Predict the structure.
Amino acid sequence: MNRRTALTTLLAGASAPLLAACSSGITSLKGNGAGGDSGNSSGGLVIGTANFTENQILGYLYAGVLSAAGVKATVRPNLGSREIVVPALRSGDIDLLPEYQGSLLLYLDKKATETEAGAMQNALATVVPDGLEVLPYAAAEDRDSFAVTRETAERYGLTSLDDLRRTSGKLVFGAAAEMKKRVVGLVGLKDKYGVEFKEFKALDSSGPLVKGALKKGDVDVANVFTTDVDIKENGWVLLADPRHLVPAQHIVPLIAARKADTKVRRALATLGNALTTADLTELNRKVDKDKKDPDRVAAAWLSQRKLG
């Protein structure tokens, strides 16, 4: 799938009233002030996804619940990283993205300090660019994590990111290229934990490249997602995060306000309440391990839950 050319438009923050978030993520059907319920989905929505399995699955789940609600929805999968898909959403090339609370907030506001889900939802409402809106977040969550093999953990006495300070200059870190400049990446690891690595290898996001490199010993520390089934299967050790570098990462729809009418809001809210972290992990397994197509995996789950 061809990636879109990244737009270089600088994102500008937009003021909006705060949301009153609750544990399930369902807040209100009125939105965050970036268009209220004045949206119109009659022309259909184009859903974009990032370039990793889980985000593609989420894109097809969004499309499925929207189609069941009578909204025409198409998916453009595997467009690229956040640095590509968010500008594409803002420019109108796509209408909806499955996003992650903490990563999205830090992308929009590098100085953000919120780590709790409700506080981040409120913060997102104040920094989302004009014309966009964050809808209520889902029960499902998928955090970034930093994994080492059990052998590496035992050799260096690693149980948390704090322990990495003792190994500075000895270990190789593998992750997607954008992690080199992200707060939840090299920047935050140095600022919060004082960690510097011998080398950074630009690979992929919890994908076959970085996981293969960790298995082979080509990297010592790998950035993987907590819903990745390979963590348990390989016995990898996830390093604890006592200084709260990694914020909550509930799934959250980021949408063009012009499309966010009541029909769309209700459909995505229903999905958000039904989808759990365990569900997301299992859906990832079916695609990554059983080699099933993400669109079919999503359709089967929605059918089973009577959502699509």
Residues 1-35 have pLDDT under 50 and may be disordered. The chain has two domains: 45-141+249-304, 144-238. The CA atoms of residues 136 and 203 lie 32 Å apart. Residues 45-141+249-304 form a domain with the D-Maltodextrin-Binding Protein; domain 2 fold (CATH 3.40.190.10).
